[in-house]
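Dock biotin; give full complex structure.
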Amino acid sequence: MTGAPSRTLGHTIHRLGEVASTQAEAARFAAAGASEGTVVTATHQRAGRGRRGREWLDTQGESLLMSIVLRPRIPADLAPQLSLVAAVAVVEALDTAGMTAGIRWPNDVMAGERKICGLLPEAVTTREGALEHVILGIGLNVNQRDFPASIRMLATSVRIETGRERAVEETRDAVLAALEGWCRRFVETGLDTVRPAWLARAQGIGRRARAADGREGVAVGLAADGALLLRTDGGEAVRVLAGEVAMEAEHAAGH
Ligand code: BTN
């Protein structure tokens, strides 16, 4: 993301076996000075982390479990927008696997109503508040045929969606290639170029949504800073910047 013309993301890939979390491994590399684009992958995580303290489950060897060290030259307060950027890149990478995925705000990658990929950007700042680096975690279900009962109704994989196995490494490389392009555009132009691509694949615009703080309305778009825009029943425009948003299922829209 420093404007280098050639491939930066994945110049070094640490391929690990079983780890607690690739986020922790990548954080260690970053703290030791690992450069932009250093990648850590694992075949299994004992303690995979999701957003909001949730766990991220995987099946040995069947998931892409990847953490990327990013050192973008952007203000620290823009770092959360990287999750929108990454969602666009993953959707584009999944196109190359022959499936059309969508994005549920802010950054869940979905196949219909089931989640196929989760993104976890964790920013580290200097004492002065400048962005030091971001560890971008990507958990993408590739070859699972089934999931634990607790997430069976919520999760899907590339294999389930396309009926075909796909090499995890091929999926990794497709994600890295797409991410490199979108990160470069983001650093150069901010969300301006990313936003239309995000909106083109957004799932849930036009559906009723309820923010964690109880505000409710119809999702009508994405603000210039990445906030989800809701229109309340009273016609008021509401911005949701953080937290969970519960969206009604597609088939329930309009009911
Ligand atoms: C989410 O809650 O949707 C985010 C899930 C992020 C999971 C990935 S898997 C690779 C990396 N290591 C982790 O422990 N978490 C992220």
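Observed: Confidence is low (pLDDT under 50) at residues 1-5.
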